[in-house]
Design a protein that fits this description.
The protein contains six helices and no strands. By secondary structure, the chain is mainly alpha-helical. The chain has one domain. It is globular, with a radius of gyration of 14 Å.
Length: about 110
């Protein structure tokens, strides 16, 4: 019998990881960006209140930075600082994603 227990991530653990690991900041940014609808990704803003992805205030900036990262493969030190700070408010959502409580659509381009 296998008694291994799957780790359940907490909001505090996500905050700690984001504060220490640059690679996880970029990974978390891209993961949240996956939850933006196709319309939101194209517009670089949050258009729908669906309780996933970026909020309306952060949508334009974080979408723009996610697209920059996807194109260039890195974040500047200034971007990294600002994204790290912004992502703290998404730590609970990131924990739920890591725990499988929230899943992205298989094709976010079809979201409406």
């Amino acid at each position: 019998m296998n008694d291994t227990k799957t780790h359940t991530w907490t909001k505090d653990e996500m905050i700690l990881i984001l504060s220490k690991r640059d690679d996880q900041v970029a990974k978390a940014l891209l993961k949240l960006y996956e939850f933006q609808t196709a319309n939101e990704q194209d517009a670089e803003e949050t258009l729908y209140r669906n309780n996933v992805g970026f909020n309306g205030v952060d949508g334009p900036f974080l979408s723009n930075v996610a697209q920059f990262y996807n194109k260039h493969g890195y974040l500047s030190p200034k971007q990294l600082f600002r994204v790290r700070k912004a992502l703290r408010k998404y730590a609970g959502q990131l924990a739920k994603i890591a725990n499988g409580e929230i899943t992205a659509p298989s094709n976010p381009r079809t979201w409406r």
